[in-house]
Amino acid sequence: MASLTPISQSHSFLKRPNLKSPPPPNFSSSFVLKDFPHSKDLSLKLPRMVTRSAVVSATTAEKHRKRYPGEAKGFVEEMRIVAMKLHTRDQAKEGEKEVKQPEERTVKVWEPTVDGYLKFLVDGKLVYDTLEGIIDKAAFSSYAEFRNTGLERSEKLAMDLQWFKDQGYAIPEPSSPGDTYAAYLKELSDKDPQAFICHFYNIYFAHSAGGRMIGKKVAEKILDNKELEFYKWDGDLSQLLQNVRDKLNKVAESWTREEKNHCLEETEKSFKYSGDILRLILS
User: Is 172 a residue whose pLDDT tops 90?
Assistant: First the structure.
């Protein structure tokens, strides 16, 4: 590096350099290019510097954010895990629910009645009619994603109830469990889309799993193994379910973490309302 000391202080013809300190540079967020013509009004903004510590801090915060069970696989997996935990260990290996009420105990002796089963089908149809009407109306644009999924059950139930009628059975009117659940779904769908989607998921997916097992048991006991239309789907059921999973995950991508948690918290209510209707089979 060149020295600032004069080459030789004995040479009189060399003037001592002016070592007066220059004025400190101006690091304001803007400056004027005075050395260029027409520059009086030209102002350049300097980009804000992002410190390395801030980047590291943000990255660390993201890395240590609480991860929810199933989150890495998509929101549907989160819903599935929460739903499975609300089963007892007798009902599912992932179950964590402790039996506190008599109606929560696993039924040891399965003795359904035709009258009870008809009540279950009628109340179930009311709930499916309500769900499908809400989806068609689509008070929130996200609901429209779930039109014509192939999981709809209303028409299938209408066919089954007609079959029972043709066999000479009287078809009852909807009872309190169905009326109550349908009214709740209508109210919820107009103001709380995250909670409504929770019920949508649990109703359709539960029927495709445990619901089919129950239908088979009932058919063995009282229907001479007749398989009702309620338990049949047009097309590959596993693919239909996957298509809806994909749609649910897509819809949930726009939700905040708080909205997702709110949806998950509604699972217990969904189980309660559906359980009230299910127990009609044994009434």
Answer: yes
